[in-house]
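Checklist before submission:
- one chain only
- standard amino acids only
- sequence pasted in full

Submission:
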Amino acid sequence: MSEQKRFKPDTKMVPAPSTSILPERDAHKRPVLETRHLGIEFGGLKAVDDVNLMIGPTEICGLIGPNGAGKTTVFNLLTKVYQPTTGTVLINGKDTAGMSTVQANKMGVARTFQNIRLFGNMTVEENVRIGLHNQIKYGMGVGIFRLPGYWKGEKAQHEKALDLLSIFDMQHMADVKAGSLPYGAQRRLEIVRALATNPRLLLLDEPAAGMNPHETEELMENIIKIRDKFQIAVLLIEHDMNLVMGICEGICVLNYGRIIAKGTPDEIQSNPAVIEAYLGKQKEG
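Returned file contents:
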């Protein structure tokens, strides 16, 4: 793995229960996410098997692995797109068994997708305000009759949307149709919309896909800024190892649906099982 730019000071990682590690600052806090023996089968095939994860409330964590390793399936289990066949998902210590995607979001889990899912015919601001819908304070009657509370709420929503867009310096694009944005800007907008739901855990599924090196560096800076500004955890799937090794504090490696390694970036880069999973077993000669 090549040299990468680091955007953070080295974080001391300490042992935690369930054979996990957490940033030292999170060690005595309740994890925002914990999975215990998580698994799912499709037609008898184990797509994810015995996955144990623990993420601290302000940790930036990477979930990496070869194509088809089961990474997006794990995200779908965490967000309740799929219900697990085995195991448990705890969000802030609460079991999410039987919950819907909406309920998981209300508990503080938000995500982006490999394939961008914006409303292309709506403006940038309107896309963000969809994420703000659960923070509307006025009732139906106030909205129908456009009472003063409605206009006050609309003003607050507008200001909040622009504030969130300013994270990526996109506030001047508020009235632009989302579908007309360049690819990288659409990626950033999807992250902003996820942040609008006020998450405690932000799941990013290949956020740097399609971005050029300059955009990727900006994304790395902004992920750290988001973590620091909102004091939330970030779990990301990414194939760009410069990004992963540059900003992630802990990394889990998935292969054939099972975790084969956990550790710091330095530990993961030198782990023989990880090298074999990515490069194949080297012949002795």
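Reviewer check: The domain at 1-108+199-285 is CATH 3.40.50.300 (Rossmann fold).
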